[in-house]
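S.,

Sequence below, as promised.
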Amino acid sequence: MRLILNILWLLFGGFEMALGWWVAALFFAISIIGLPWARAAFNIGLYTLWPFGQEAVRRDAHLGREDIGTGLMGAIGNVIWFVLAGWWLALGHLFIGLFWAITIIGLPFAWVHFKLIPISAAPIGMMIVPIED
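The prediction came back faster than expected:
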């Protein structure tokens, strides 16, 4: 079922949102100092491309230890991210999610877009892990 949902997701807007993440990653990578944000944006773009069967979790909660991205530096990085790119990615997920929520058949896609809003606002300190059945 996950495979079917992921293929439908790709066909009905998932690729475009992943592309938005990768454009953000490219802009951050070009600046050189934005490489930490570029890496986060690229990884979340992969998650946005194929979301069913995976979830985003806080790295410190999953690994059981803090690192530079989950402490104060990560919080500062997330503020910078939100100002420069996070708000428009979050708005994109919100509007597309609302569009899909109007239809009954689009509810799984709306749910994924709504799950992507918090990670759009603050991706530093997050990681993508497979959902265990």
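Residues 18 and 45 are 5 Å apart (CA to CA).

Coffee later?
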